């Protein structure tokens, strides 16, 4: 879902008969919907059963895919992409389900493996999307996502046990609305600031308003009996530092996905670009996702032996090394492949560690909501990276055949900033407690869905 429309972004204004400004909402709408949906669906999963909420989100993903596949209009496309973005809440819920159904000894490896799919999905999805966009009608992109949603629905329905571990209570509608408004304000200001103008009244108003609403949200959450996000738990040292480190990892991961393709696809006339096609550029990033996937058992064993804190620190060090090398390695295709691979190595260790750190620090009935908030932090990091790095690449460019191409200094500055951000995340990881008593993990037995529903009713 995250890389699905990347190959057709330049053609979206023509394909949807709209302006370039309106076409950007095809990406922005999905980002906003995912950021809002993730913590809300996590809380609903804790309350009413994670499997049930996963199925509902996958159904929304399927409906959104069908809407997009049948759409030639910008409004319908945005509606479909919002539904697809809402479905991305399954990521945090999927990781949280592992805690419920697996023995604690198996949990670390499973979390690392599932977390790695975040990388491999985007890395493999991008060249597949490029192939479809270049050789078939672009609507097939969404029929493919719909097919994947159906497969996921059938697998979850038949394999994942019904959640019997439920917190109960009432849903915090007021908190959800305040959280959504505040988060949308901040994310819109960050993602659209370059287009609206960073000093414009709209950008400043969105940012200030979003921060103000989130402050009100915080006060309200501390006073309500069934909060959407338990801020007292979120303020614990382990949870807080892990979430802050997640912002830096999200930033660093997006930097690789945003900057390297531009470097690879820029024309060689500038003396900087490598002149590759979108498909070749996509294939160059694929090793990043593959190394995340195949590294997951190693990351799990390291976390089991030395603790997830060590994995997060090591991941941060790898990312810093990758971007430090990138400053001087920009002239060959294999340079980009090397940088993407080392970055994937670091992100793989970090992604394997962060959910485990969160789950060790929170009660079992808060797992999905806590993981949801952690996912939002990664999204926030990616959004900030898109705004900051996009501004840098656009501000120092050379014109070739009527097109503005980023200069060498722009790419180098992006890599330096990514390295500094990753270094900050590594320092935050060092500050995590070396030893912490894990919260109790409550595994549930694997039972037939009909039996579990009958027990829950009784």
From TrEMBL:
Q: Where in the cell is it found?
A: Cell membrane
- Give the matching Pfam families: MFS_1
Q: Name one GO molecular function term.
A: transmembrane transporter activity
- Tell me the membrane topology, using the record's own terms: Multi-pass membrane protein
Keyword Nucleotide-binding recorded: no
Q: Where is the Major facilitator superfamily (MFS) profile domain?
A: 1-437
Q: Any idea which UniProt keywords this protein has?
A: Membrane, Transmembrane, Transmembrane helix
Recorded protein name is: MFS transporter
Source organism (scientific name): Subtercola boreus
């Amino acid at each position: 879902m995250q890389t699905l429309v990347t190959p057709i972004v330049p053609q979206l204004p023509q394909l949807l008969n709209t302006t370039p400004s309106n076409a950007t909402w095809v990406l922005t709408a999905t980002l906003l919907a995912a950021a809002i949906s993730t913590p809300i669906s996590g809380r609903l999963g804790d309350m009413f059963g994670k499997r049930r909420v996963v199925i509902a989100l996958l159904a929304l993903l399927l409906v959104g895919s069908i809407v997009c596949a049948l759409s030639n209009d910008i409004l319908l496309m945005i509606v479909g992409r919002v539904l697809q973005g809402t479905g991305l809440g399954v990521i945090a819920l999927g990781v949280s389900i592992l805690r419920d159904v697996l023995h604690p000894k198996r949990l670390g490896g499973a979390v690392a493996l599932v977390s790695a799919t975040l990388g491999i999905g985007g890395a493999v999805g991008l060249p597949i999307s490029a192939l479809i966009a270049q050789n078939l009608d672009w609507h097939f992109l969404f029929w493919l996502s719909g097919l994947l949603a159906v497969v996921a629905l059938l697998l979850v329905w038949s394999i994942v046990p019904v959640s019997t571990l439920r917190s109960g209570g009432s849903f915090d509608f007021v908190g959800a609305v305040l959280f959504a408004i505040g988060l949308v304000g901040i994310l819109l200001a960050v993602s659209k600031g370059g287009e609206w103008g960073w000093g414009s009244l709209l950008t400043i108003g969105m940012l200030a308003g979003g921060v103000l609403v989130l402050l009100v949200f915080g006060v309200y959450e501390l006073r309500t009996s069934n909060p959407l996000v338990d801020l007292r738990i979120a303020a614990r040292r382990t949870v807080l530092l892990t979430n802050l480190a997640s912002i830096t990892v999200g930033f660093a991961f997006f930097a690789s996905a945003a900057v390297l393709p531009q470097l690879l696809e820029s024309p060689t006339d500038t003396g900087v670009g490598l002149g590759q096609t979108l498909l070749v550029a996509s294939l160059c990033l694929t090793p990043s996702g593959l190394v995340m996937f195949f590294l997951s058992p190693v990351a799990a064993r390291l976390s089991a032996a030395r603790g997830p804190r060590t994995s997060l620190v090591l991941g941060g060090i790898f990312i810093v090394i990758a971007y430090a090398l990138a400053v001087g390695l920009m002239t060959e295709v294999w340079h980009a492949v090397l940088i993407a691979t080392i970055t994937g190595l670091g992100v793989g260790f970090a992604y394997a560690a962060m959910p485990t750190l969160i789950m060790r620090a929170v009660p079992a009935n808060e797992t999905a909501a806590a993981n949801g908030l952690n996912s939002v932090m990664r999204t926030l990091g990616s959004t900030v990276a898109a705004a900051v790095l996009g501004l840098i690449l656009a501000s120092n460019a050379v014109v070739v055949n009527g097109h503005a191409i980023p200069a060498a200094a722009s790419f180098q500055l992006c890599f330096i900033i990514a390295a500094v951000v990753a270094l900050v995340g590594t320092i935050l990881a060092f500050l995590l407690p070396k030893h912490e008593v894990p919260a109790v993990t409550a595994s549930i037995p694997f039972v037939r869905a009909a039996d579990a529903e009958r027990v829950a009713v009784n």
